[in-house]
Design a protein that fits this description.
CATH superfamily: Hotdog Thioesterase
Helix content: 10-25%
Number of helices: 2
Number of domains: 1
Oligomer: single chain
Strand order of the largest sheet: 1-2-3-5-6-7-4
Distance between the termini: 43 Å
Order of helices and strands: HEEEHEEEE
Number of strands: 7
Radius of gyration: 15 Å
Length: about 150
């Protein structure tokens, strides 16, 4: 598990292995569920979108740390938007997402999520996600995204 996390960390946009300077952070400009989390920002790093959230007390669980659902939401969002971009704008839906929580996130921490696109098929995309606080990896994920079925 730690080896997989180390491999993913080495591929994370903005990591030491990264080759390009990230763009500046800007506000997410959509009116979706993620926007309701609060101060969600995004930037492009190594050709992939990263997103970030400044956590606050509204993100806390009963134990007083950031709720795992917040972390999962950011990872789902970052992988989903990158799969959509890679597909040329075709809407994508999450088919599966497995998240491994490595460390708790304190209320007040800035949480940043990034992804690595692993494989693209005819209708499915496979990707891994990372969530970090500063340079500390707090969660990893792997999942499958499918092209959304067209509605009549």
């Amino acid at each position: 598990m730690q080896r997989q996390a180390d491999d993913l960390e080495a591929q994370r946009p903005g990591s030491e292995a990264s080759t390009e300077q990230p763009s500046p952070w800007e506000a997410c400009a959509d009116d979706t569920f993620v926007a309701r989390l609060g101060s969600v920002r995004q930037r492009i790093s190594d050709g992939l979108i990263e997103i970030s959230l400044q956590t606050d007390e509204t993100h806390a669980n009963l134990s007083g740390i950031v709720h795992g659902g917040v972390i999962m939401t950011l990872i789902d969002r970052v992988i989903g938007v990158n799969c959509r971009r890679a597909s040329g704008g075709i809407p994508m839906v999450t088919a599966s997402l497995t998240v491994n929580f490595l460390r708790p996130v304190a209320v007040g921490d800035r949480l940043t999520a990034s992804c690595v696109l692993r494989k693209r098929g005819r209708t499915a995309y496979f990707a891994d996600g990372l969530a970090c606080v500063t340079d500390t990896l707090v969660a990893t994920a792997t999942g499958t995204w499918l092209r959304a079925a067209k509605r009549p």
